[in-house]
Amino acid sequence: MPWSCSGGALLVHLEDDEERAVLRFRDVGGRLVQRHVPSPRSLVPTSEALLAGAVPRERPPPVLDEVERALEQPPPDVAPAVPARLPRDPRYLLDAMVGVRFSGPSPTVWLAPELRATVPFDAWSGGIWVRYGLPYVLDRVPREFTMAQANLGLSAGRQLISAPVDLRVAFNPSLSVISMNAEVREQEAEGAKIDLYLGLSFSAAIPFTETWRGVLVLDAEMVPAANREEPRIDPALPVLPAYELGLAFGVELVAR
Question: pTM of the prediction?
Answer without folding.
Answer: 0.63
